[in-house]
Write a structure and sequence with these properties.
Layout lengths: L2 E5 L8 E5 L5 E7 L4 H15 L9 E7 L2 E6 L5 E2 H7 L4 H20 L12 E3 L5 E3 L6
Antiparallel strand pairs: 1-2, 2-3, 3-5, 4-5, 6-7, 7-8
Length: 142
């Protein structure tokens, strides 16, 4: 388990931390709570599939770790804001909204190619960076 350095999202019911691996890489660590053993096995299969995915439209999974019986998902940090925040702070042009919609569809297509779906697709699990690139996050949530 990487060293937890700083809690990032105090409003989230799921603890999210900036963490550092043994070799010095920064990762984002999200703790999952109350995962049943059968669901944990399915979740590990999904995480392995996403870990091997080389996609500009999916949140990069760095792995998983257990600490004290808790499961932590480790993610590579990526730039961008949630679509929820983008829409709250900016008015999008038709071209920008269309580009975001296309990015979401490409991300979903990539998930489906991996044999996965997105259980909680929302404006909070779609992230847009400063260049307008779109990335789907939390594809592995139970």
């Amino acid at each position: 388990m990487p060293e937890l350095v700083e809690r990032l999202d105090h409003a989230s019911p799921t603890p999210v931390w900036r963490a550092r691996t043994r070799n010095g890489d920064d990762v984002v660590a999200k703790r999952l709570e109350d995962i049943e053993p059968a669901r944990r096995s399915d979740l590990m299969v999904q995480l392995r599939a996403l870990h091997g995915a080389d996609s500009a439209h999916l949140e990069p999974v760095a792995g998983a770790a257990e600490k004290g019986g808790e499961l932590w998902v480790l993610l590579r940090p990526t730039p961008g804001l949630s679509l929820h925040r983008v829409l709250a702070e900016h008015t999008l042009s038709v071209a920008q909204a269309t580009a975001i919609a296309v990015g979401i569809l490409i991300g979903l297509e990539e998930l489906h190619r991996l044999g996965l779906g997105h259980p909680r697709l929302s404006d909070r699990t779609v992230h847009v960076d400063a260049l307008g690139d779109v990335r789907l996050s939390d594809c592995w949530l139970p």
